[in-house]
Write a structure and sequence with these properties.
heterodimer; A: 717 residues; alpha+beta; Penicillin-binding protein 2a (Domain 2); Beta-lactamase; seven-stranded mixed β-sheet; 26 helices; 25 strands; elongated; B: 378 residues; mainly alpha; three-stranded antiparallel β-sheet; 3 strands
Chain lengths: 717, 378
C-alpha cells in the first residue's frame, strides 16, 4: 500500500463520515428546528372539517311572535366522493336525479361542482365548499322526492335526503317586513376575508336588515367535525366532533299586527293615489314610541316576498328587486329613500323664527306671492290668507310668511356677502333636529339626507364648478337652453354662495333639502316628547334558546333639540290645529284620537323614466295624543300628490289600528295597544307562538303559554 | 491454519459481531417499517395487510443464506470465478434490454420477471461483479508493481464501463451513479495516480451534462431533477412526492407519532413508501430519536467496515471492502438525502431497510463479502 493509497483511504473515511453527519444535520433541521411547521403542514393535508350549521335564532316581535325563524326543510345532497368513483363519474345517477327534481342536468351538474372546478364564466350555482361533505343541491325537496331517494337507495347511490333548517318568514300576522328583517345567504369570499367574524365556509349569514345587523347573536356556533382522510380522500377516522350551538333569539320592538296594519295602510294610500291619477311609485310609513325611540312598525313600498331568498334567487327575481320599472323593491324607503320634507319642515321654521325673536302671537301677512329679487315666490295654490298669526300659518300651511321671514333673516346675515357671526337660525335649527345626519337606527345602509347649509354649498360648488364653468362643452345638447346656460354661468361665478332663493326655499322644506322618513319620524317624536332626539331602535333584547336574557337594548338619546318648552307648547297647539281646522281637518273630523301633525306636499324637479314630470311627494308627519304624546306616525308617498288626502288618511288608519277606532269611537277590544306598547319582555316559545287575539294584551298572551324552550331545538338540523 | 482459511464451516465467533449486529438492527427496523408502510394501505384495499411483511421476511431469509454462502468461499478464490461472475452479470443486463424478457417499470427496463411473481433486478447483482472484477485487476497491478500502471487502471475502468453502459441503456441513473462512486473510490484507494481520480470525477460531471443534453435521460428523470430544484414545478408527480416526503419526516418531531400511528403513513400520502421512501416511515413514526438511531447503525456499520478494510494486508480484499463501502455509503446518502430534499430524486432503495428482493440479496451479499475479508484477515 503506497502513500497515496493510504492518504486516499483516510480521505474516503472522512467523506463517508461527513455524508452521515450531513444527513443527521438535515434530519435535525427537518424534525426539530422546523418540526412545528411540518407538523402543521401534515395536519392540513390530512384533516378535513365538516361543518354542521347551527340553528339560527329567531327574530320575534315584541309579543314573542316569530317574524323570522328556522323551519325544517328537506335537503337533497350529492356525495362527490361516492359518485366520482363510478365508471361514468356519476353521470347516470345525476341524470336520473335531475329528472326526479325536474331540473336540467346541466343545472344539477353545476350545483355538484366546486366553484374552482368550473370555467370562470360558467360558475352559476357552483358549490363554494369542500368536496368532503355531501353537497346540498336543494333545500326545498318535496316529501315525495325525498322518499323516492330514501326508498331506492340503490338507484341513487351517493344521493341522500335529510331534513335541515331553512330560514322562513312565517308572516303570522300577515306582515311582510321584508326590508326590516332582511335576508340570509351563504358567506362569500369577501365575507370570509373578514377575519374578525371567523365565518365558516358555507355558513348562512345575515346579508341585510336585522338579519345582518344582529347576525353575531343570531348565527350561533356551527358544529365542527374533523375527520382524517388518506391520500384518496377516504375518511380513516374522526378526530373531533363539536356539536353546534343554536343562535340566540332577537326580540324586537316591532308589533307584527301593527306592522301588518301599517303596511296595509301604506298600500291603501298608494292605491288611493293611483285612483286619483298620481304615479305613487313608492312610500314609507313608520310608527315610533316617542318616549324612547322604539320603532313599533316600519313599512316600505314596493316590497317583495322575503321567502324568495331562502331557496336561492333566480336571475329574474334578482333583476326585479333592483329594476327601476318595478320601483326598485330592494330599496328600503324608510331609511334609504331621501325626499324634500316640504311643509312638514315648517315646524322647524317656527322654532327658527322663535329663536330669531319673532312673536308667535303677532299677525303676519300671508299674501298670494312675494317678490324676492327678480323672482316671484308664490303661495301654495297662489291664494292669499290675509294677516294671520303663526298658529294659523301652520294650520293653513302658509308659504309666503316664511318667504318673507327667511329673506329678512338672510339679508340680516349679510345676504350675498355673509357677515361674520352668522345667526343662520334656519340651518342651525335643522341641524339641531338631526337633519343631514343619520339617526343611527339599528339597520344597515341608512342614508343621511342632506342639509344644504353653507358648508354643503361650498362642497357642492367645489365638486361642480368645472362643469358649470364648461357647461356649453360638457352638458347634454338638450340642456343647452338659454335659461340653463344663464344658471350655469351664475353657478360658475359664485355657486358657493347661499342665495336668497336658497334661503327662502329652505324655510318651506324645498330646494336642496332631503330627509329620510326615519329622520322625519325622529324629528316629530322629539317635538312630541318635549325636545329629545332618540336613536330609533328596533331591537329590544337578545334571549338565549333557554330563555336567558343575553342583552337588553337601552334607550339612547342622540341629542336635545334647540326648542324651548314654550316653542314646543306652541307647536303642539299649532299642529293640533292642522287636524282640527287646518289642512288635515277634513281627514280628522270627528276622530276620537287627538292627532297633531303637519301635511307636506313637496314639488319634485326632474322627470320620470317615461318623460313625464314627477308628481308631488305626499307627507303627513304626526304624533298623538296631543295631551300626552305616545306615538309618532309618519307616512310618505313618493309621487303621491297631496299630503292631506293621501298620507294623512293613511296615518289615520294606522292610529285606528293602534287604538281600535271603529267609526268615531274607540273599541279597546279592537286595539293593538289598548294600554300602550308592551313594557315587559315576552317569554319565547317560537315554535308554538300564535297570533294573539286583538282583545288580549301581547304580554299576557305570550306568558300564558309555558316555555318549553327545548322545543326550539327539536327543529331538525 | 490451512483448514481454517479454506474451511467450509464457520463459527459465528469468526465474524465481525458489531458489523453483523448493526445489520441485524437495520434489518429488524426495516421489517417493522415495511409493515408499517403497507399494512393500512393493503387492509383498506381488502388485501392481506401482512403481504409485504411476509415477502420482506422471505427476502431477508434468502438474503441471509446468500450472505452466509458468500462467506464460505475464500474471497481470494473468487478471483478465479470473477470472469464467470462478470460475464453472467453482463449477460443478464443484456437480457433485460431484450423485449419480452425485461419488464418496464417507471419507464425503465430494469427488471426480469421470474416465475413465482418475483422480479430480478440484474443491475443490483452486476454491481457486485463490477466491484470484484475491478478489485482483481487493480490489486494485481499494485501487487506486481509498486505503482499502478495506467494500463491496469484502463483495464479496470473497462471492466466497469461495459455493465454501466448497459445500465444507462435501461436507463437506471441511480445505479450508474452508485457504481461510479464505487469505481472512483476503488481507483483512488488502489494507489493509482491522482489524475485518474480527478479525470474520472470530471468525466462524471461531463457525462451527466451530456446525458441530460443528448436525451439519454428520460423525461421523467428530468422532471425529477427539476422538481428537486423547484418542488412546485410538477406538483402532481415528483414534486408532490418530494414535498410529501419532507412533510412526513418533519411532522415526526423528536419522538415521532409512534410505530403504526403515523397519519401520513397510514393515509398513504407518500407513494412508493415501502421501497424508495422507507425512511419517511421512520421519520414520521419514530421521530428524530428513531431516525437518528438508524443513522447511528449505518455509522457503526461503516466504522466496522473501514476497520476491516484497514486491517487486511491484502489489496484485493481491501478494494472489495472499499467498493462495497462506497456503494452502501453513496446509496444511503442518496436515498435518505432524497427523502429529506437534500439530493435529487433518482429512485434507489435504502440498503437493508427498503423492500425489494434483488437489492436485499445484493446488500446481504455485500455484507458477506465484508465478513469474508474479515474472517480471512485474522
Amino acid at each position: 500500500m503506497n502513500q497515496r493509497s493510504r492518504l486516499n483511504l483516510i480521505v474516503f473515511q472522512v467523506l463517508v463520515a461527513s455524508l452521515l453527519l450531513a444527513l443527521l444535520g438535515r434530519l435535525f433541521f427537518l424534525q426539530i428546528a422546523d418540526g412545528l411547521r411540518y407538523q402543521n403542514a401534515a395536519l392540513s393535508i390530512q384533516s378535513r372539517d365538516i361543518i354542521t350549521p347551527a340553528l339560527r335564532g329567531a327574530i320575534t316581535d315584541s309579543s314573542g311572535l316569530p317574524l323570522a325563524m328556522d323551519r325544517p326543510g328537506l335537503e337533497i345532497t350529492v356525495d362527490r366522493s361516492a359518485i366520482d368513483k363510478m365508471p361514468d363519474k356519476g353521470k347516470a345517477v345525476l341524470k336520473s336525479l335531475a329528472a326526479l327534481m325536474k331540473i336540467s342536468y346541466s343545472d344539477l351538474y353545476n350545483r355538484t361542482r366546486l366553484c374552482g372546478e368550473l370555467p370562470t364564466n360558467q360558475k352559476v350555482g357552483c358549490w363554494n365548499g369542500t368536496r368532503y361533505q355531501p353537497i346540498p343541491v336543494t333545500k326545498k325537496a318535496t316529501q315525495q322526492e325525498a322518499l323516492k331517494i330514501l326508498e331506492n337507495a340503490n338507484k341513487y347511490p351517493g344521493i341522500d335526503a335529510s331534513s335541515v333548517p331553512i330560514r322562513g318568514y312565517p308572516s303570522l300576522a300577515k306582515e311582510n317586513a321584508a326590508h326590516v328583517l332582511g335576508y340570509v345567504g351563504t358567506v362569500t369570499e369577501s365575507d370570509m376575508a373578514n377575519t374578525s367574524q371567523n365565518y365558516f365556509r358555507n355558513e348562512i349569514i345575515g346579508k341585510s336588515g336585522l338579519e345582518y345587523q344582529y347576525n353575531q347573536y343570531l348565527r350561533g356556533t356551527p358544529g365542527v367535525k374533523t375527520v382524517i382522510v388518506d391520500r384518496k380522500e377516504a375518511v380513516t377516522h374522526q378526530s373531533q366532533n363539536t356539536p353546534s350551538i343554536p343562535g340566540n333569539n332577537l326580540i324586537t320592538n316591532i308589533d307584527a299586527r301593527l306592522q301588518a296594519a301599517t303596511e296595509a295602510s301604506l298600500a291603501d294610500a298608494i292605491t288611493r293615489a293611483h285612483a286619483l291619477g298620481y304615479k305613487a311609485d313608492s312610500g314609507a310609513a313608520i310608527v315610533m314610541d316617542v318616549k324612547n325611540g322604539h320603532v313599533l312598525a316600519i313599512a316600505s313600498y314596493p316590497t317583495y316576498d322575503p321567502n324568495i331568498w331562502e331557496t336561492g334567487l333566480t336571475v329574474a327575481q334578482a333583476k326585479d328587486l333592483f329594476s327601476e320599472s318595478a320601483g326598485v323593491p330592494a330599496l328600503s324607503r324608510p331609511i334609504q329613500g331621501m325626499y324634500a320634507p316640504a311643509s312638514t319642515f315648517k315646524s322647524l321654521s317656527i322654532i327658527a323664527a322663535a329663536k330669531a325673536g319673532y312673536n308667535m302671537n303677532a299677525l303676519y301677512n300671508c299674501p298670494a306671492s312675494v317678490q324676492i329679487g327678480t323672482q316671484l315666490f308664490k303661495n301654495f295654490e297662489t291664494k292669499s290668507q290675509g294677516h294671520i298669526n303663526m298658529e294659523n300659518a301652520i294650520a293653513v300651511s302658509c308659504d309666503t310668511i316664511w318667504y318673507q321671514i327667511a329673506y329678512d333673516e338672510w339679508v340680516r346675515d349679510g345676504g350675498l356677502f355673509p357677515k361674520s357671526g352668522l345667526h343662520d337660525y334656519f340651518f342651525k335649527t335643522a341641524a339641531g333636529f338631526g337633519f343631514g345626519k343619520a339617526t343611527g337606527i339599528d339597520l344597515p345602509g341608512e342614508a343621511t339626507g342632506r342639509l344644504p347649509d353653507r358648508a354643503w354649498k361650498e362642497k357642492w360648488y367645489k365638486a361642480n364648478k368645472s362643469f358649470f364653468c364648461n357647461f356649453q362643452k360638457q352638458a347634454r345638447k338638450s340642456d343647452l337652453t338659454p335659461y340653463l346656460i344663464a344658471i350655469a354661468k351664475e353657478n360658475c361665478v359664485d355657486g358657493n354662495i347661499i342665495r336668497a332663493g336658497d334661503a327662502v326655499n329652505f324655510s318651506i322644506g324645498q330646494g336642496d333639502t332631503l330627509v329620510t322618513p326615519i329622520q322625519e319620524t325622529a324629528v316629530y317624536a322629539a317635538i312630541a316628547n318635549g325636545g329629545t332626539l332618540f336613536k330609533p331602535e328596533i331591537a329590544r333584547a337578545v334571549v338565549s334558546p333557554s330563555g336567558k336574557i343575553i342583552k337588553t337594548f337601552k334607550t339612547v338619546i342622540t341629542g336635545k333639540t334647540p326648542a324651548t318648552a314654550k316653542d314646543i307648547a306652541f307647536l303642539h297647539t299649532a299642529l293640533r290645529a292642522v287636524a282640527t281646522r287646518g289642512t288635515a281637518a277634513a281627514v280628522f273630523a270627528n276622530y276620537p284620537i287627538t292627532v297633531a301633525g303637519k301635511t307636506g306636499t313637496a314639488q319634485v324637479l326632474g322627470k320620470n323614466p317615461d318623460g313625464s314630470s314627477k308628481d308631488d311627494t305626499s307627507w303627513f308627519a304626526s304624533f298623538a295624543p296631543v295631551e300626552n304624546p305616545r306615538y309618532a306616525v309618519v307616512m310618505m308617498v313618493s309621487q303621491g300628490g297631496f299630503g292631506a288626502s293621501i298620507s294623512a288618511v293613511g296615518v289615520k288608519n294606522i292610529y285606528s289600528a293602534i287604538y281600535g277606532v271603529v267609526g268615531q269611537t274607540i273599541d279597546p277590544t279592537q286595539a293593538i295597544f289598548p294600554k300602550g306598547p308592551p313594557t315587559k319582555l315576552p317569554i319565547l316559545d317560537v315554535k308554538n307562538a300564535k297570533l294573539p287575539k286583538r282583545a288580549a294584551t301581547p304580554t299576557a298572551s305570550a306568558s300564558a303559554s309555558p316555555k318549553p324552550s327545548s322545543k326550539l331545538s327539536s327543529v331538525k338540523q | 491454519m490451512k483448514r481454517k482459511t479454506i474451511g467450509v464451516r464457520r463459527n459465528l465467533a469468526d465474524y465481525d459481531r458489531w458489523l453483523a449486529l448493526s445489520v441485524v438492527a437495520l434489518l429488524a427496523i426495516g421489517t417493522l417499517l415495511v409493515y408499517a408502510a403497507t399494512r393500512n394501505w393493503f387492509a383498506s384495499q381488502g388485501l392481506d395487510p401482512q403481504y409485504y411483511l411476509k415477502r420482506h421476511i422471505l427476502n431477508i431469509i434468502i438474503g441471509v443464506l446468500l450472505s452466509y454462502g458468500t462467506t464460505l468461499i475464500d474471497y481470494r478464490l473468487l478471483r478465479a470465478y470473477t470472469p464467470i461472475l462478470w460475464g453472467l452479470g453482463v449477460l443478464s443486463l443484456i437480457a433485460v434490454l431484450v423485449p419480452g424478457v425485461g419488464s418496464t417499470i417507471n419507464g425503465a427496463k430494469s427488471w426480469i420477471a421470474i416465475p413465482g411473481g418475483f422480479q430480478l433486478q440484474p443491475a443490483e447483482l452486476a454491481k457486485i461483479s463490477v466491484i470484484i472484477g475491478m478489485s482483481m485487476l487493480l490489486a494485481e497491478g499494485s501487487d506486481s508493481r509498486s505503482d499502478l500502471d495506467d494500463r491496469d487502471v484502463l483495464r479496470a475502468i473497462a471492466i466497469a464501463a461495459i455493465p454501466m453502459l448497459l445500465i444507462i441503456m435501461q436507463p437506471d441513473l441511480g445505479e450508474v451513479l452508485i457504481i461510479s462512486a464505487s469505481v472512483i473510490s476503488m481507483i483512488s484507494v488502489s494507489g493509482a495516480k491522482s489524475r485518474w481520480v480527478v479525470g474520472l470525477l470530471l468525466l462524471g460531471v461531463l457525462g451527466s451534462f451530456v446525458a441530460v443534453k443528448s436525451g439519454v435521460i428520460h423525461e421523467y428523470q428530468l422532471k425529477r431533477l427539476q422538481s428537486f430544484v423547484n418542488p412546485t414545478a410538477d406538483p402532481q408527480q415528483s414534486g408532490y412526492q418530494l414535498r410529501q416526503s419532507r412533510i412526513t419526516i418533519g411532522s415526526g418531531g423528536v419522538l415521532g407519532k409512534g410505530l403504526f400511528n403515523g397519519p401520513q403513513t397510514n393515509g398513504r400520502f407518500v407513494p412508493e413508501q415501502q421501497t424508495d421512501f422507507i425512511f419517511t416511515v421512520a421519520g414520521e413514526e419514530l421521530g428524530f430519536v428513531g431516525s437518528g438511531f438508524i443513522l447511528l447503525c449505518f455509522g457503526l456499520f461503516f466504522f466496522r467496515a473501514f476497520m476491516i478494510a484497514r486491517r487486511t494486508q491484502d489489496m484485493f480484499g481491501r478494494l472489495v471492502c472499499i467498493g462495497v463501502i462506497a456503494w452502501f455509503a453513496f446509496q444511503t446518502f442518496e436515498n435518505i438525502g432524497m427523502a429529506m430534499g437534500l439530493m435529487p430524486m433518482t429512485g434507489v432503495p435504502l440498503p437493508f431497510l427498503s423492500y425489494g428482493g434483488s437489492s436485499m440479496f445484493a446488500n446481504l451479499i455485500g455484507l458477506g463479502l465484508l465478513q469474508n475479508v474479515h474472517v480471512r484477515s485474522r
